[in-house]
Amino acid sequence: MSRTARPRQPSFDCPHCRSRAIVRSSAQVTSLVRELDYACTNHRCGHTFVAQLEAVRTIVPSAMPSAAVHLPFGNRNLGPKRLPVPANDDTREPANEDGPSAAQAPDPMSG
Ligand SMILES: [Zn+2]
To answer: Phi, psi (5° rounding) for residue 89?
Structure first.
C-alpha cells in the first residue's frame, strides 16, 4: 500500500470563529515571504482569508548562502509570545454570588 505524503501546512485558526482553517493555495511573494489562502473549516462561518509566512531569523546558517538574503541570527525561542487563550468568563460576577450582600463589613471611613 502506498500513500502519497502530503506536506504539512502551517495551521491557522479562523480569526472570526477560531475554528481550524486549511490552506487552499499558496504563492511565493519574495524569497522570504509566501502568501497562503486559507479557508475556515466551519461551514457556518465560511471565512476565507490570506496569511503571510515570512522567514525572520537564521538558526543554522545555509551551506549555500545567497548574497541576496539577509536574515539575522536568532534563537528559535525568540519572538512574540503566544496570545493567551481568552477566558470564557463573560460574566463579571462569580457564579456563586447572587448579588450585593446585606452583611457587608462596615466602611471604616464612614464612622
Ligand atoms: Zn471561521
So the answer is: -135, 60
